[in-house]
Amino acid sequence: MGNHISLLLVVIPLIAAPIVAVLPRGGRLPWLTTLIITFICAFLASSQLWMVLNDGVISYELGGWAPPWGIEYRIDAVNAFVALIVAAIAAITLPYALLSAEKEIPQHQIPLFYSAFLLCLTGLLGITQTGDLFNVFVFLEISSLSSYALISLGRNRQALTSAYQYLIMGTIGATFFLIGVGLIYSQTGTLNMQDLAKLLPQLSQLKTVHTGFAFIMIGIALKLAMYPLHLWLPNAYTYAPSVVTVFLAATATKVAIYIMLRVLFTIFPDDFLLATPTYDIFILSGMAAIIFASIYAIYQSNIKKLLAYSSVAQIGYIALGIGFASSKGVTAALIHLFNHALMKAALFMAVGAIIYRIGSCNMKNIDGLGKQMPWTFGAIVIAGLSLIGVPGTAGFISKWYLVTAALEQQAWISVVVILFGSLLAVIYIGKIIEALYFKPVTDSNQSAQEAPLLLLVPLWVLVCANIYFGLDTSLTVGVAEKAADVLGVVDIGIMNK
């Protein structure tokens, strides 16, 4: 069965999605079915990562057709790591989804919600498994289309406009990506990533290849919400149902980062990238995101939008690590990819618990609520400290490795920006803590109670993970270092100095 894990990770949620859609709408059978599927996927993803770390790369030939003629699923430490993040977050999110979805999504749409959730999971896992560039586009569209539907399920009518805005930007990004893939295919005659890696060094001077690369990068950057192509993200995260925000914030942009890493370090040769301003753009975009998105977050009155802008800033940290073009930089990016999924999922879960109790997450409506909801407040404090990068939390490990990568290249401005971004995070996380605990409780919140256990348990699983991975880095750092080695990162940034 081990040889088929990569295929099962895609097929199982894909088959389950239409089944869940037609299950009875009155009970909780759609939720239970989806819960079982996500736990199966999490088990398969963890098994797959263990197999890759112990036995090496897994190559699965679909239909018995040998690559590059047939479609290949090729799993190494990089995509096995990202697949585990996606599947684990889905499994942790589903127990939380039961009450949260019932509170925020119309009852008759709940089976459709779980069906779309499984389709989104299928698309995200499919991207991590495939070794074929066109299949990346196919799975990207599956995850994107289901994401638009999930966002639109919010009770607020602004959810529809946010989903529409995301649809427009996502369609533009997908079109750019597909055009780029078509241009590359026209010169190479192949879509297999490993085959492209062998052919492109001889074709890197062609203008068509340069144009295709530019289209692919812009398309992924739009999907990734890379600054300044991030405009769809704040509203999408703000007005989507809380459980949707949790899942997408922790997984969707992480998978887009994986695609970016795969294109940069597996498909295109180093000398080609050195002849372009690609890495400089990543560094400039990363620094701009850290500063400007964090400042935008400070001035938000809606906690979900505040955290959404914070996500743009955190993507900036990852972009900065990629821009260093060194093994330490990419290792830092991969570590933060994992750690940010933990901290941001925890924060959005805590905000969802607040919405569950008082129906709002505006700053003016949460005064004094921390005393009424101490466990939720404690989760926000610990996850917020991780986001800031306080020692003893997962966020500290990310920023430590990022600063180390910057110092390795004597990128002093980047070091200052990283530290300044942490100070800005203190301000916007401090705003939430001040409102929740240091302001007098409002009359409307006097009767508010702590969130139900079904919301608190998955929330605190993530909170404890933020602490655990801040103390034991054997998994995150070990796998990230091996993944950077698998990608073939050869310290281009240092060589180019």
Q: What's the layout of helices and strands?
A:
Blueprint: H1 5-21, H2 29-55, E1 58-61, E2 72-75, H3 77-104, H4 110-129, H5 133-152, H6 158-188, H7 193-199, H8 207-224, H9 233-239, H10 242-267, H11 270-274, H12 278-298, H13 303-323, H14 327-358, H15 369-372, H16 374-388, H17 394-408, H18 412-438, H19 453-471, H20 474-487, H21 492-495
Antiparallel strand pairs: 1-2
Q: What is the CA-CA span between the terminal residues? A: 48 Å
Helix content estimate: over 70%
Task: Name the overall outline.
Answer: globular
Proportion of β residues? under 5%
The computed structural class is: mainly alpha
Mean pLDDT: 89
Query: Stretches where pLDDT falls below 50 for ≥5 residues?
Result: none
Radius of gyration: 22 Å
Count of separate DSSP helical elements: 21
Could you give the order of strands across the largest sheet? Answer: 1-2
H/E series, N to C? HHEEHHHHHHHHHHHHHHHHHHH
**Total DSSP E strands:** 2
Q: Major β-sheet, in short?
A: 2 strands, antiparallel
Brief summary:
This protein has 497 residues and is mainly α.
Structure explained in plain terms:
The protein has 497 residues and is mainly alpha-helical. The protein has a domain at 279-497. The chain is built from 21 helices and 2 strands. The protein has helices at 5-21, 29-55, 77-104, 110-129, 133-152, 158-188, 193-199, 207-224, 233-239, 242-267, 270-274, 278-298, 303-323, 327-358, 369-372, 374-388, 394-408, 412-438, 453-471, 474-487, 492-495; strands spanning 58-61, 72-75. The chain has a two-stranded antiparallel sheet. Helix 10 runs parallel beside helix 13. The chain is globular and about 70 Å long. The mean pLDDT is 89.
